[in-house]
Amino acid sequence: MSRRDAGRDRRSSEPKRGARRGRALAGDGGLPKYEPDIALRSIEGHLTRTGTQVMAWYRLAAQAWSFRSDSQREILIRQIAAQLGELQGRWLHLRVTTRPYPVHMWAESFDHNALGRMPDVAGALGWDGFLEGEQRHLMGLSMSDKEVFLGIEVSGRSMLDRWVERAAPVLGKVAPAAVRAELAALSSEVGHLDALVSGSGLDAVPASADDIAWLMHRSCALGLPAPRTLSVVPGGVGRWETEDLAAFTDGVDMHQEPYAPTVRVIGRLRAQTVSRNVAVLSVGLMEGLRIPEVDDPWMQHSDRLPFPVEWSARIYVRRPDEVAGELQRQMGKVRSQIRHYTHDHDLDPPMSLARQAERVLEVEDELTSGLTQLNTRLYGWWRIAVSGKDEAEAISRAQQVLDVYRPKVQVEHPEAQYRYAREFIPGEPLASTAYRRRGSVTWAASAVPAATASVGDRRGIMIGETCTATRRPVAWDPWLAQEVRRASGLTAVVGGLGSGKSFLTGVIVYKTLRAGARWTVLDPSGPLAQLTRLPELAPFSRHINLLRADPGILNPYRVVAEPRPEHFADEEDPERAWRRERSLAAATRRRLVLDVLTGLLPYDVARIPHTRIVLLRAVREVGGATDRHPGQVIDALRRHAREGEEHAGVVADFLEERRELPQAALLFPDTSRDDPWQADRDYRLTVLTMQGMTLPRPGSPREEWTDGEALAVELLNLASWLTQRTIYEADRNLRKGVALDETHFLSQVPTGKVLIDRLARDSRKFNVRAMFASQLAGDLLRVSGFASLVNAVFVGRTDDEEAQTEALRLLKVPHGVGYEQMLGTLSPRPRHDDRPDDTPRQFIFADGHGGVEKIRIDLEAPHLEHVREALDTNPDASRVSARGVPAATGPAAVRAPDEPAPRHAPLAPPVGRFVRPGPDLGSDLGDDLDDEFTDLDDPDGLLTGDRGGPGGDASDHYGRPGPELRHDEHLDLAGDVDPGDDDSVHGGNGHAGLDQDRVRAAGEAVR
After folding, report:
1. CA–CA distance, 253 with 782 (Å, rounded to integer)
2. What sign has the CA pseudo-torsion 573, 576, 579, 581?
3. pLDDT at 6 over 50
4. CA dist., res. 490 & res. 766, Å (int)
5. Most CB within 10 Å of its CB: which of 399, 696, 956, 982?
6. Residue 524 preceded by cis peptide, ω within 30
7. For residue 979, is pLDDT > 80?
8. Strand partners, 263
9. Cβ burial 443-460 (10 Å sphere, 16+ → b, else e)
């Protein structure tokens, strides 16, 4: 109501009410009208309104750029260009801002996700201290996430539109159909834009109320420190009236001194007055960039800077008819100039003029052929804003921006900084048409503003930070794949010597233990055993040196877990499923015993076909029950020898000799003792080591292994099988982990491959994160199905070219496009640096759901200094205070009990939400298991006479005979050992003192 109307009403009512003339009535007629300092007038949902324009705002999804092939990157650019081309005739406002990494949100998610964590230990680092230390460390890193918003003009607002909006309450009563039609038309257009930008490329979603509030705050308070938290409108309210916009503008003042190179922004932050100087730059002339072949997206260059950078771009997508007319005029100018040179002065035109004419013709051809969306032209203005605590720091940062874009992109520092800074606020007019850039939508799309480093999740442990163009924390939940995405828990850790595989494994094991997981770690060399000595882990841990453990701890019949009936309660036929799984477990034990005993034999005996035959018959006679042991197989061989099988006696003699070795006692149990694994279920961490064991050189052929090395490989295989016992004996819903080192030897053992495959397939069903560490990715790729089942991959420094290609295959990223060289540059170290190499290691991390980035492992937080020292494997003489006396004292010297370990009191059972029905061991198994049992009974077809392949010697990595050799074939094996060749008998194959007579007897037995 106008003031005149209000006064007229008051005058007409005064005589009736007997009031004095001129007396004002209660109401809002005399209130002052609020006018915002900005052009924006209202916000409704993701729509913003000014006096002349309505824009819809969207939040763009982050786009991965690293470790993608050029063809994949070109497809992304074309998809973005096609979406921009559909916006012809519209103004766009692109805003790139940053948000501090939400440490408090991560901490809440991590704390909520830490289910069943272990109790605190008095005097040691507790859970609250651990979580607080992680948060403080993250806050000190000052890392942020990039957020990209795109505003799209919905419609221009004429004077009639503005009048209709003001009169909407009245028109809604007089002509409601007209108002509904106008609102429906606007809603239809917004819905069309929502669907258009949601496709692949921009992958945009309508901005939420929180997003709009954050964007307005970062724009109106340009350059001021971002608050950790931001209060927005209450939930369910998505509309800001004109008066509500004061929440973004009050308390912020922006002003500029005459001719000053920066604008000063003053505001309130956490009840304190804060000021910053902001320098606004504009993108100028640009050379022809080759994206993606040579150059990165040009807007991504600013991500390399160690301080936040704000972007604002105003873009107008032109209609083809507008461009065609301009091209005709431009072509006419160029032709006139060429004619002026050639006809008027008989001179050759400059080459620059010829290039202009050629380019005009190319653009004209683009507009008249091919996909119209990709050839659409646009023009726009790209502004960059950086801030500093004072003018000097702001100018210094502006200079760094100029340097990072040189020499291909010219960045200008214009005058009128105040008006340029206001451009960053949604709805504000363009400050100046200076530095306008023209190009195609493909050129604009090649900036890829949403390109960033995105890997990991927001609820797992902190393992490090990205070290590419964008620096972000990397959190990873090892059980997210199994519990949420229904994927495998298989993880590969690959890298050469000194690449940091053990350190990375220790970081993951320690932090997930604190969060409630259970781990069994096989670390042959032993550095990870230091984790069991940490005060907060010692009461819940045990370290077992297998080479000093009780006899029989690696009995092949005991390392394979026995299925439990309760695991199959949810099957259609629980009894049948349980018996089926028991048969498979028994067949696995028989195959494991057969491989282990064959591996214990000298190479010259193991390669005789009849050796495997007599062993297979003895193993089948003993059976596959859990109460058997390898000594019974030797007894069966003796019985067969007495029955006329001479070669069985030869094999038994060799096995008896191996049985006398100290390490071989681990295979043969002492029946007078209790089962050493009877009480192992109360431990959160079990570390198995084999310190003192000598493994063969990786890649060396089987015939070059010594007796000790051959035995070490078999013990490593059995120890690996031992780690999986706890998986099948615990509740399948508990979060469990298995970490295996030196797995490149497992890939050479048939039963080792079976173990890897079994852990890979059962990891999802039993909620297991299985980590396999190896020096070469090719060792893991040789396991059938490993590449298709692997979920997460860590690749450290790798120098060999072939190994680099295989590592990229494991990462599932393109090879042959230049990424191989990057693997050789991980964890760089100065050549002439004599200091200890304790710098954090770098890895290429594939998180299993699309993210692949280069990361840096971080364990530098002060509260984890004792963990860092425990995982430090570098030798240091200063750690020894006297000869043979360690210098470590105090809590850090607490040691977990070695085997045999005293029995601890049972830990408190998990809370009720962990207890669920038992595991389903057979639900994912096919109907071909009966055939698999037959294969395990006679895997090489030696008893049935079946050949496994056509022709040739198909021996495995041990030199064991393949299925093509029949036991009744005439084969002169005595000639394989030359009595006169000492190297072949004593030194060549490493078997000192080999009995040549028994080898000849083995050959005669075949005849």
Report:
1. 65
2. negative
3. no
4. 12
5. 696
6. no
7. no
8. 278
9. bbbbbbbbbbbbbbbebb
**Tokens coding 706:** 């010594």
CA distance 471 to 143: 7
For residue range 576-613, list pLDDT tens digits in order.
888 888 898 899 899 999 989 998 898 888 888 899 89
Q: Write down how long the chain is.
A: 1007
Q: Distance (Å, rounded) from C-alpha 518 to C-alpha 658?
A: 36
Mean per-residue pLDDT for 653-668? 84
Least-confidence region, from 482-496, 555-569, 840-854:
555-569
Report yes or no: 265 and 254 within 8 Å, Cβ to Cβ: yes
Nearest to 848, CA basis, from 893, 798, 811:
811
Is residue 95 a contact partner of residue 449, using CB atoms and an 8 Å limit?
A: no
Three-state SS letters, 147-213: EEEEEEEEEECCHHHHHHHHCHHHHHHHCHHHHHHHHHHHHHHHHHHHHHHCCCCCCEEECCHHHHH
CA 637, 642, 643, 648 dihedral sign is positive
Compute CA distances 585 → 666, 680, 763, whole Å.
21, 21, 17
Strands 518-522 and 685-689: parallel
Q: Does residue 242 have a pLDDT over 80? A: yes
Find the distance separating the first CA and the last CA of the chain, reported in whole Å. Answer: 117
pLDDT value of residue 706: 83
Cβ atoms of 421 and 220 closer than 8 Å: no
* Cα 536 to Cα 543: distance, rounded to the nearest angstrom: 15
Long-range contacts for 562-569 (Cβ within 8 Å, ≥24 apart)?
562/626, 563/728, 563/921, 564/728, 564/729, 564/918, 566/918, 567/728, 567/732, 567/918, 567/919, 567/920, 567/921, 568/918, 568/920, 568/921, 568/922, 569/917, 569/918
Q: Which two tokens stand for residue 787?
A: 């590449």
Residue 41 near residue 52, CB atoms below 8 Å:
no
pTM: 0.76
Q: Which residues contact 543 (CB under 8 A, 6 or more apart)?
A: 529, 532, 533, 687, 689, 896, 897, 898, 899
Q: Residue 852 is encoded by which pair of tokens? A: 């692949």
Tokens representing 590 are 């028989």
Q: Is 411 exposed, middle or buried (0-12, 13-18, 19+ CB in 10 A)?
A: buried
Among the listed residues 690, 695, 810, the one whose alpha carbon sits nearest the alpha carbon of residue 744? 695
